[in-house]
Amino acid sequence: MSRINELRLIARVAQMYYAENLKQADISKHLHISQATISRLLRRAHEEHIVRITITAPNGTYPDVEKALRDRYGIAEIIVADCGEDREDSIGTSIAAAAALFVETTLEDKEVIGISSWSSTILKMVDSIHPIKRAKSERVVQILGGMGNTGVQISATHMVTHMAKKTGGQPQFLAAPGVANSLAAKLVFLGDPFVCAACDQFRRLTLAFVGIGSVEPSVMLANSGNRFTVEELHELTDQGAVGDIGLRFFDAQGNLVKTPLDDRVIGISLEQLKEVPRVIGVAGGARKVAAIRGALRGGHIDVLITDKFTAAKLLSDAGP
Fold it and tell me: Which of 55, 220, 225, 298 has fewest C-beta within 10 Å?
């Protein structure tokens, strides 16, 4: 077959498939050519530049920014949510809606889901999720101690309870504070059978949703009582800490900042978190840029759900 005739045939097959919306089997029957050949000709249509695919991103989506972030930080997936204002409450609402859709569309059967306490964005995410019927989780596990100020503790309990209800799983509470007063106090809590049972579930997690915090605690965390003193936070900063996941602090490169304070935290460790197949970081805002960058560099999360303003800062400011 001469090249011009071959190209004509390739173009005809491409026209039928892409412009006339015919199936490969129908094209095969119409042209009396095997379906395997039709498939090969469609591949050739791309190789010969007869067919060129152009993706027009809908307004409010940022595929180029997401790709740039994936390339820069080597992360599997980035979701950049549209957001009207560069303010923490607006950013939190936008990220939460995007994270809720992520849960609804990617949840698999019999997932063991870990969820961090004291994150207002994750709380909004849970409230935004529609009940899921196509898949059912096995269990929703609290991965950071959820006891604290009674006025705020209800939010941590609500988070786990409603996530379990909406995904069809059983709630598993970590009935201890996120920060114990001492290592001795922590060991007492870990001796409790209910606390021990929750911690035993960490190794079974298939999916985890975590907030990413700056060294300075969020309002929700501070109000819960699960925080370190100003002097202790200064000590962390002096050691190079830029942020935390579940009160496990890390530096600008994502390396664990190990101090005696770490021994008082009751919750999943960064080492345990790395064993979870999918870890979803849900965070945004100017205050958290350095922390998010450190989490990305350290490989502590597999998916980042953030907003367009934070994404732009992560790309424009390389940091230390």
Answer: 55
For the chain, the distance separating the N- and C-terminal CA atoms, rounded to the nearest angstrom, is 61
Residues composing the chain: 320
Residue 141: strand pairing partners: 114, 172
pLDDT of residue 154: 82
Condensed to tens digits (0 to 9), the pLDDT of residues 268-294 reads 999 999 999 999 999 999 999 999 999
Of 115, 103, 88, nearest to 209 (Cα)? 115
In this structure, which topology does domain 63-316 adopt according to CATH?
Rossmann fold (3.40.50)
Domain chopping of the chain, boundaries: 3-47, 63-316
Q: Say yes or no to pLDDT of 320 above 60.
A: no
139-142 β-sheet, strand order: 77-81, 303-307, 278-282, 207-210, 112-115, 139-142, 170-172
Measured CA distances, 14 to 23, 36, 48, 52, 92 (Å): 11, 14, 11, 11, 45
Positive or negative torsion for Cα 258, 269, 207, 274: positive
pLDDT digits (tens, 9 = 90+) for 168-199: 999 999 999 999 999 999 999 999 999 999 99
pTM: 0.87
**Residue predicted with more confidence, 223 or 234:** 234
Mean pLDDT on 74-86: 94
Reduced to 3 states (helix: H, G, I; strand: E, B; else coil), residue 267 is: strand
Residue 19 vs residues 22, 39, 274: alpha-carbon distances, Å: 8, 16, 47
Could you tell me the CA-to-CA distances from 191 to 116, 198, 263 in Å, in that order?
21, 12, 15
Instruction: Report the CATH fold assignment for 3-47.
Output: Arc Repressor Mutant, subunit A (1.10.10)
Q: State the alpha helices, DSSP H only, in the chain.
A: 3-14, 24-31, 35-47, 63-73, 88-106, 120-128, 150-167, 183-190, 193-200, 219-224, 230-238, 270-274, 289-297, 308-316
